[in-house]
Each structure stands twice: as C-alpha cells, then as structure tokens.
Write a structure and sequence with these properties.
By secondary structure, the protein is an alpha/beta fold. It contains seven helices and seven strands, in the order H-H-H-E-H-E-H-E-E-H-E-H-E-E. Strands 3-2-1-4-5-7-6 form a seven-stranded mixed β-sheet, sandwiched between helices. A hairpin with a 7-residue loop joins strand 6 and strand 7.
Amino acid sequence: MAEFGEKFNVSRETLSRINTYRELLILWNARINLVSASTITDFWSRHAADCAQILDVAGENIHSVIDMGSGAGLPGLIIAALLKDKSRMQQITLVEAQSKKCAFLREAARTLDVKINIENKKIEDLSPAKYDLVTARAFAPLTKLLDLSLAYSQLGARMLFLKGEDVSKEINEASTKWKFCYKTTQSITHKHGCVLEISDLMRLNTGEK
C-alpha cells in the first residue's frame, strides 16, 4: 500500500480511497465472481498498480474516459479514485453488461464518493460519444477491442489497453482485419505484460477509418 502511494505519488486521501475499494472488493467477491480470489492478496500490485499505470502512459491531457467491459471496475474505478481531486476530469463511464457487477460498481462509486457514469449494457448497444480515452483490461482479444473501439477512435479517443504475454499474437491476428499503428509500454507489474496504444485505426475490408 505504501509502495503504491510512493510509486504513483498519491495523497493519503487517495490511498485511503483505493484501500476502501480493496476492502469492498474482498467483501463482494465472496458473493459474486469479480476477480480471481487468488489475486486479491496481491491487490496493490496485481490490480491497483496495473491499472494506475494507464494514466502514466496517457499523460495529463485526459478529461474523459470510457472503460469497456469494466467488470470489477478495473481500470475504471482506480482511474476515478486517482483523478477524483483533479479538476481536469470531466467524465468517466464504466460499461458492464452483467447486472450484479453493475450493482457492485454503483456501491463502490457511492462508497468512494467518485462521480462516474455506469452503463448496464453491452458496449455494442451504447451510442458512441466523444471521450479522450477508451480502455479495457482482461475484456476481449485485440481484434474485438478494435471493432468495439472504432467509433470512439473516429471521435478522437486514444486507445490504451492492458495486455498480457499473448499481445504479439493478438497484434498479428488483428493485423489481418485492421490497419493500425501501435506502441507498447512495458508493464510495471507483469514481466510479459504491457500497455498497448493503438492509433490510426482503419478496417481493411472496407477502407473505413
């Protein structure tokens, strides 16, 4: 916990807020499957730091975020907790199809006192809107993520995804259907993980940008 605070230079209030989320996650995870139970003991590295590094890659010019397939609120709730006291943050939207998980997200948002928009639906059923950043963690293969992100990219969103050791395989598979540029930033929490940034996205079969 203290190491996380030092690494990301967060206030005691923010650290306490994220710890409250951790406690709530443990409580709810006993009722519904939010994350693998074996990972909660290493929450600060496995989950909190893994999600927080997105903001390090994204930089300062982020005012709105949409988290696709948010699940337990990772990375969306961690981002919301980190940016609660930042006046630049205007909107964070968490999209989750499962009602039980949305109930957790609402309770977490209320307990942490963070202002977020929770959409209980599939991302495909949500009307695209303008965001600065579209992100996802452990949600879908890259080919699917690109399909879901295209409309947001067209509206100007940056695309940052947390990916694991299969990232090269996913990039190769996605390249058969999409033209895009990409950049990987080594994960600070996983030896074979990365933050994958996609840009200049174009569907190959239609030429549509």
